[in-house]
Design brief:
95 residues; alpha+beta; Alpha-Beta Plaits
């Protein structure tokens, strides 16, 4: 009889654990991942260039002037910065 009692307790604890995890973790309702490469999250586009080398030059120029920048991986290449750096990036790219 104690063996059956232990099995019931184990399953009850596992069920309670599952309910607690379900409550705190919930179901995953995040948006679908960006599979076409057009969503860059928090980054804002400041330039669009046809070649990878041109994008690298612009990123180096921005970084040399203290603006954190990156580029997309596929043509046409997008040079992107954080939203708070957009104004500074545009000033740097104009000069």
């Amino acid at each position: 009889m104690t063996g059956l009692y232990q099995i019931v307790v184990v399953f009850a604890v596992l069920g309670l654990l599952a309910l607690v995890l379900r409550y705190f973790a919930g179901d995953d309702r995040r948006p679908v991942p960006d599979l076409d490469g057009t969503d860059f999250g928090l980054l804002s586009e400041v330039a669009l260039v046809p070649t990878e080398e041109a994008a690298k030059v612009l990123v180096r120029k921005l970084k040399a002037n203290g603006v954190r920048a990156t580029r997309s991986r596929h043509a046409p290449y997008r040079v992107m910065v954080f939203p708070q750096d957009v104004a500074n990036a545009r000033l740097v790219l104009r000069s």
